[in-house]
Write a structure and sequence with these properties.
Length: 129
Amino acid sequence: MNPRCDDRAPDGLRQGIAMYNRGEYYECHEVLEDTWRAEADDVRYLYQGILQIGVAFHHLRNDNWRGAVGLLSGGIEKVGRYRPQCMGVDTEKLVHDAQNCLDQLHVIGQDNVDQFDWSMVPVIEIAEP
């Protein structure tokens, strides 16, 4: 486990998660990208993974199945490095819920992206300080 996981989440991560939870997937990408790029520690991959999961849902909204699948896969892998919790983020739940979405995308396939069940999209839970 990364020792930084015990730190309070930086403001950029908190802002990005709030945007993600409001369904502002592209906007959350902008905030999280700045936070990710500014971080020198490996915990930056947590930020990048959350960013990728958000962008996956942006792609899905635009019927881009391939983009959604690729980014969900990458985001799940990165966030999974920080299970079960990091910086107050419930990474275990996020990985589990995002994997359920990825599994559903594989079941419905590229031609049925409009059948995705949006109620499955994870809410990212972060503990308040």
